[in-house]
Amino acid sequence: MTARVGVVTFPGSLDDQDAVRAVSIAGGDAVSLWHGDANLHGVDAVVLPGGFSYGDYLRCGAIARFAPVMEKIIEAAREGMPVLGICNGFQILCESHLLPGALTRNDHLHFICRDQKLKIENNSSAWTRDYAVGQEIVAPLKNGEGGFVADDYTLDQLEAEGRVIARYLDLNPNGSRRDIAGICNEAGNVVGLMPHPEHAVEELTGPTTDGLGFFTSVLTSLLSGQAVNA
Amino acid sequence: MVRIVVDVKLKPEILDPQGRAVLGALGRLGLSGVSDVRQGKQFVLTIDGEVTDEKLAQINHIAETLLSNPVIEDFTVQVQK
């Protein structure tokens, strides 16, 4: 028995096929979803992949947030369906207000593309269950607008509630407040991450296979009925 | 025909790296005495017919949900006749 994990393709998505492969390698049934879909085809979880949805016009993720499929995903996420937003997907989740804060232009203004070291700080979310707290992983990072910002009250709250799921190690690549690379919602089913775990699932093409844990975690969570924190 | 101008700017506490880059260029172009540059966006909506209170409320809602992100940006809506 396994779970059906949907991967949304928006006009301008780049990493949807890599996300589909990552789901399959982890042992899940990957289901392609289209931005214009008005239903979720019975998926148990959704990945919003990286890329430049709608050309990143207006603000990254601002137009994608109003896509027909997003209306359904927002509804399902509020009811506990696991959703992982990677890079542009993280931006879409912030624009949807499923996650707090926003992602802004890198402080140095340059697009960045590097293999980034991260520290996992939360292994109780639906997407990080298979990691150990404190585990160091390496995954590709590639963004122009990856600086996570929120007011101090929100940042304090995220840290106090253990909702920072990963932080940048060694260097802060984009000016993210408090070195934050990824966060989750209160229930732990919605996770946003700026680095790309789907590019670190195979030795042939990735710097490591460290990213696979996000995709196996959601299967573990779904099959054990722990998609949402108690 | 009525024009409605929506100005969107980053909240003062949000770092504006683009504005900072422009500030750097100003110095190189010989303009001194500029202590800060903030970059924003302007949307000009051309409306056919009358702008009713209801339509203005709709536009305010769109300005708050689509044209700006209230987490990082402030906006103003002005009607130009």
Helix and strand layout, with pairings?
The complex is a heterodimer of chains A (230) and B (81).
Chain A: E1 4-9, H1 16-26, E2 29-34, E3 45-48, H2 68-78, E4 83-86, H3 88-95, E5 102-104, E6 112-120, E7 136-143, E8 147-149, H4 152-160, E9 164-168, E10 180-184, E11 190-193, H5 212-223
Parallel strand pairs in A: 1-2, 1-3, 3-4, 4-11
Antiparallel strand pairs in A: 5-8, 6-7, 6-9, 9-10, 10-11
Helix pairs in contact in A: 1-5
Chain B: E1 2-10, H1 17-28, E2 40-47, H2 53-67, E3 73-80
Antiparallel strand pairs in B: 1-2, 1-3
Shape of chain B: elongated
Give the N-terminus to C-terminus distance of chain A in angstroms: 24 Å
Can you tell me the residue ranges of chain B where pLDDT is under 50 for at least 5 consecutive residues? Answer: none
CATH topology of chain B: Mth169, Chain: A
Mean pLDDT of chain B: 94
Strand content of chain A: 15-25%
Pairing-aware structural class of the strands and helices of chain B? Answer: alpha+beta
Tally of distinct domains of chain A:
1
- Pair of chains with the largest interface and how many residues each contributes: A-B, 21 and 11 residues
Query: So what's the overall shape of chain A?
Result: globular
Q: For this entry, what is the oligomeric state of its chains?
A: heterodimer
Q: CATH superfamily membership of chain A, which one?
A: Class I glutamine amidotransferase (GATase) domain
How many β-strand stretches of chain A? Answer: 11
